[in-house]
Amino acid sequence: MFKKSYFVISLWIFLGALSGLIISSFYGKTDIYIPFYHDISNVLERTSPSVVNIWTIKKWKAWQEQSNEFGFKYNRRVVKTGFFPNGSGIVIEKNLIVTNFHVISDALNQNQALIIENHLGKTVQTQILGFDLEADIAVLGIIDSIDLKPFKIRKNIDQVKVGQSVIAIGNPQGLGQSFSKGIISAINRTFQDKEGNLIQTDASVNPGNSGGALIDDKGRLLGMVNVISSTSGGNQGLNFAIPVDTVIDVFNSIVDK
């Protein structure tokens, strides 16, 4: 009788511990792998609402051919308006987005309107809440709510290792949200005049990915794509991201001001 009770108690303890691990893994707090939930297609579907495309509304003057009431054609100087891709952004909290400062610097200097686009193609105007020039990080606030989802943050960023699988999410060349897979090539990299240590990855990154997300294979945010080292301006496998702990520290300092 005693042995049977001992077995039942042990079984309940085991099932309770296993359930705890599974629940913790859902929230990104353990390294346990759950099939289907951590399948790459599922991870990408869950993280899509956490990355936005950033566009600028620009106006410029151009000649346009027109006709008068008698059919005579002539050229007239007109003002045109269009959307131009700037880069990408990461949803940290509800209606609050971080990106690289260099992504929005021209819009700030030229007083141009900024638009963000979510994974469903819906757009909304945004405003710059603050920035840290040295860290190359800016915080944006959206005016009207759209379908966005804050990222789950990788807590133990100091335990990230070279060789781990990562995924870059962004808006390369203004084509729309795209994903690329690679590994962590190096950590604690210093790069040119960039502040702090960066994560190096070979995940394909191109102009437009700046400000986008670098995530692990469970969908947790590792960092923000920041710079490409390339002789052509495009991907050559030398891409760098600001670690998420730095991103969060700068984000908090801007939001709390």
List keywords for this structure.
single chain; six-stranded antiparallel barrel; 13 strands; 21% helix; elongated
Fold topology:
Layout (H helix, E strand, L loop, with lengths): L1 H25 L13 H8 L3 E17 L5 E21 L2 E5 H9 L3 E5 L5 E10 L4 E6 L9 E2 L11 E6 L7 E12 L8 E4 L11 E4 L3 E9 L10 E5 H12 L2
Parallel strand pairs: 7-12
Antiparallel strand pairs: 1-2, 1-4, 2-3, 3-6, 4-5, 5-6, 8-9, 8-11, 9-10, 10-13, 11-12, 12-13
Compact overview of the structure:
The protein has helices at 2-26, 40-47, 101-109, 244-255, and strands at 51-67, 73-93, 96-100, 113-117, 123-132, 137-142, 152-153, 165-170, 178-189, 198-201, 213-216, 220-228, 239-243.
What does this structure look like?
The protein contains four helices and 13 strands. The chain has 257 residues and is α+β, with helices and mostly antiparallel strands. It has two domains: 83 residues, Trypsin-like serine proteases (Thrombin, subunit H, Beta Barrel), CATH 2.40.10; 104 residues, Thrombin, subunit H. A six-stranded antiparallel barrel has the order 1-2-3-6-5-4. A six-stranded antiparallel barrel has the order 8-9-10-13-12-11. β5 and β6 form a beta hairpin. It is elongated. The N and C termini lie far apart (65 Å).
Q: Which spans of ≥5 residues are poorly predicted at pLDDT below 50? A: none
Q: Beta-strand level of the residues, as a percent range?
A: 35-45%
The helix count comes to 4
**Rg calc:** 23 Å
Mean pLDDT: 81
**CATH architecture designation of the largest domain:** Beta Barrel
Total number of beta strands? 13
Largest sheet: 6 strands, antiparallel, barrel
State the oligomer.
single chain
Rounded to the nearest angstrom, the distance between the terminal CA atoms is 65 Å
Look at the structure and give the CATH class of the largest domain: Mainly Beta
CATH fourth-tier homologous superfamily of the largest domain: Trypsin-like serine proteases
Count of distinct structural domains: 2
Q: State the share of residues found in helices, binned by percent.
A: 10-25%
Elements, N to C (H/E) = HHEEEHEEEEEEEEEEH
> What structural class do the secondary elements suggest?
alpha+beta
What characteristic shape results from the CA principal axes? elongated
What do we call the CATH topology of the largest domain? Thrombin, subunit H
Taking strands numbered 1, 2, ... along the chain, how are they ordered across the largest sheet? 1-2-3-6-5-4
